[in-house]
Request: fold
Amino acid sequence: MLSNIVKNITPSATQDMEVTVADMLAEGIDVIGFNAGEPDMGTPDFISEACKKAIDEGRTKYVNTVGIFELREAICRKLKRDNGLEYDPAQICVSTGAKQAVNNAVKAVVNPGDEVIIPSPCWVSYEEMVKMVGGIPVTVPTLNDFQLDVDAIEKAVNDKTAAIIINTPNNPTGAVYTEEILRKLADIAIKNDFYIITDEIYEKLIYSEKKHFSIASISKEAYDRTIVINGFSKAYRMTGWRVGYTAAPKEIADGIASIQGHTTSNSTTFVQYAAVEALRYGNDDISKMVREFERRKNYIYSRLVKIDGITCSNVDGAFYLMPNISAFFERGTNGKRIKDSYDFCNYILEEARVAVLPGAAFRAPDCVRIAYTNSFEKIKEGMDRIERALITLNKE
Reply:
């Protein structure tokens, strides 16, 4: 008999679509992917070369569970430089991707029966991670522009609240939480004594003059209640390398180290040396990538808002837009009716051969998530296909 953990978790919609698209491409079907949550550009050569060098030098043995000292030290320098945060290497745990880092953080501060607030729309894995430790996810809708609704969050707090998980810039919405709103959230956490798990993996992907602000930098009281999550997948285009990290108060950091020691032990050794190189020399490369993503975002947004029936917030982070497509519900063609965002995505995939993700998977049932992680040429073609498919629906 399967465990209750397996019975209670929901499969990942993002991974399901990745499999579907891969299968269609393998069959020779021309599909344009607006679904992938990873940069389409390859890992910079200097990072790959550092990894090869580490292998050639025999850096393939077990190392400290929490990561090599050089990397933890480099992470501390990065957090000081970019976020105004003072950490010691003993407060850092390098993990096998930021997803493991979030999982470690949840396990470190959530007990069975505890409640964890998750602003929604939200990444598909947060709720499942909370459920797997016996916690209770409490989703709280964001405002219309996808900023945090701090009043609603405060109303959701009670004596069972152990933590809140925030993600800024946000997946799936692309929203960048403002400093003003984050200060209000910190006040609520301090007043009610719960933890803040802040996932900042998209930190470098911000456009227009917006700035990233880390909630842990507000005060010592906020710092003492915050676990910072970050990694190398998005900014350094290292998704398959699987390297992320937590930065936390020492007691929590020690707990996270113990948890990881009984699960994966250290993140892949030679990859950690590549990560050191990424932190040393990667900023110029990031700037070029951000400019290209901003160009794509502006183009795809301009196309979306011109389509009759679609509304969309012009957000400034990550590489996602989340248009509202509910005007197409109850429309149809060829005898098929669109009832929800899943039906909408299936229609776009079948009719336009473009893959987008249903907002319902992210607790945004009236929306879809569009990732502009494809070439500019593919984005143009994909938007042409979507527009033609929706014109057909509008005529029904």
